[in-house]
Amino acid sequence: MVLTGTVLTLPKHGLVLQQAVHARVRVLEPIDPAGFAGDVHALRDHVRDVIIREKARMEAER
User: Fold this and answer.
1) Could you tell me which of 26, 20, 24, 1 has the C-alpha nearest to residue 9?
2) Could you give the dihedral angle defined by the CA atoms of residues 4, 9, 14 and 16, in that order, rounded to the nearest 10 degrees?
3) Gap between the Cα atoms of 54 and 58, Å rounded
4) With the C-alpha atoms ordered 48, 50, 53, 58, is the resulting torsion angle positive or negative?
5) Residues 25, 3: contact at Cβ < 8 Å?
6) This prediction's pTM
7) pLDDT digit string (tens) for 5-44?
8) 33 DSSP 8-state letter
9) Which residues make beta-bridge pairs with 26?
10) 15: domain range?
11) Cβ atoms < 10 Å from Cβ of 34
């Protein structure tokens, strides 16, 4: 799952949520961990790369 547009929802050191924030969420295809033969670091890196690529696509669509 990738979530964008939430950076202004709760400003740094803020205590009040902003009322009008345009956030977007995209649910991606599942990633089967079996293909990583127990290598949690490789799985972590792969998932991170998938999220980064999709986040860039979503931000380019704005």
Assistant:
1) 20
2) -160
3) 6
4) negative
5) yes
6) 0.79
7) 887 787 777 777 777 888 899 999 999 999 999 999 999 9
8) G
9) 2
10) 2-60
11) 8
